[in-house]
Amino acid sequence: MRLVVLGGGESGVGTAILGKKKGYDVFVSDFGKIKENYKEVLTINKIPWEDEKHTEALILNADVVMKSPGIPDKAPIVKQLMEKQIPVISEIEFAMPFTDAKIIGITGSNGKTTTTLLTYHLLKQGGLNVGLAGNIGKSFAWQVADNNHEYYVLELSSFQLDGIVSFKPHIAVITNISPDHLDRYNYDYNLYIASKFRITENQTAADYLIVDNEDSAIQNWLQNNKTQATVYPFSLQEEIEKGCYLKEDTIYTNINNEEFTMPIKELALDGKHNVKNAMAATAVAQLLKIRKQTIRESLSNFQGAEHRLEKVLKIQNVQYINDSKATNVNATFFALDSMNTPTVWIVGGVDKGNDYDELMALVREKVKGIICLGVDNQKLFNTFNGVVDVMIETTSMTEAVKIAQRMAEKGDTVLLSPACASFDLFENYEDRGKQFKQAVHNL
């Protein structure tokens, strides 16, 4: 069996290692450059590879192809594979048959990283032998090759779910759905929604689906489509008989006839969206029989995700917050919504078809100044010019942070929450967040 891996990043190299271990004839091809550390791993494992090209003769003879999530279906080599009817699958689809572990799959437009990390923290504190993979950390396939975890918590993007055939999580979570990555879905929101719901398409009556009860896209889908799984909703607005809800600042859950309560003031994370993330993680923990006391302790001592509403420093009574992971409008909406002080907002980057009008009410209420950090800021100016007192453009993080320091007064917050991708000025959102933190530390 010949396995061709397209993309020599974390998921590609992990798949290559697992494939080699399982007796496949493996070849890795990357149209860009493969990082030196990954080249070394491939060479040590005697796995042939190429970069900065795709040699058709070495790819179109595959029995199966694993495509990294960053490569779109419209890439020429992928189109050729499809025409030849060679199966093109994602890493999670390739790796799943090689493990007996129970899978907890978490997807959503926002909140999935925090929910994934929080769920992993709850299960690990509860004593389970659990791995963390997907969009976070070491690749799922790599861990299946090297470890023997009994459970995996996977953060799953729509791109990973697009490449599945039989992949099935025992517990699936959809945190929310809002327009994102529409450039990959022909600008059709329904295609993106359908992609998220692939997480439940192979689930059976023995499996579970945990969803946001207030999300209109999720509720619409559930009204018009069937899932075999038992559905547990979570809600901030109404009492739910079977699921999770908020009442008088206390979380109440009833999962598998087990009840649990926790006041939200004891949660480690602030913000309404984090109450929902905590509910989703709690539901998973209860389904896996983690002790209530452990769940309570874990929810109160959890350290949040880096680059997601991460408190960096307080300087002259101004709080600097790194929310570089907010790469879409919806994520920035959550960030602005959780601000309780006048805010200097650093925003901008590569626009994914954003509609900034959704932020208008929050900007009027909370934002005193906007610093645009991007190559093209015209759309931001068109939307917010005249709405806030000051709007300034810059193309350097150091300068953006210095301007923010001048704008901010005692008691204010400086928030980096770009609502955009980072590729115009930075390597990725992590690089952008690290540069922000460095610039703050240099003040």
Automatic annotation (TrEMBL):
EC number annotated for this UniProt entry: 6.3.2.9
Binding residues for ATP: 108-114
Pathway the protein contributes to: Cell wall biogenesis; peptidoglycan biosynthesis
Lineage: superkingdom: Bacteria
Enzyme class, broadest EC rank: ligase
Gene Ontology molecular-function annotations: ATP binding; UDP-N-acetylmuramoylalanine-D-glutamate ligase activity
Residue intervals of the Mur ligase central domain: 106-285
GO term, biological process aspect, one: cell division
GO cellular component: cytoplasm
Keyword Transit peptide carried by entry: no
Keywords: ATP-binding, Cell cycle, Cell division, Cell shape, Cell wall biogenesis/degradation, Cytoplasm, Ligase, Nucleotide-binding, Peptidoglycan synthesis
Protein name per its UniProtKB record: UDP-N-acetylmuramoylalanine--D-glutamate ligase
Gene: murD
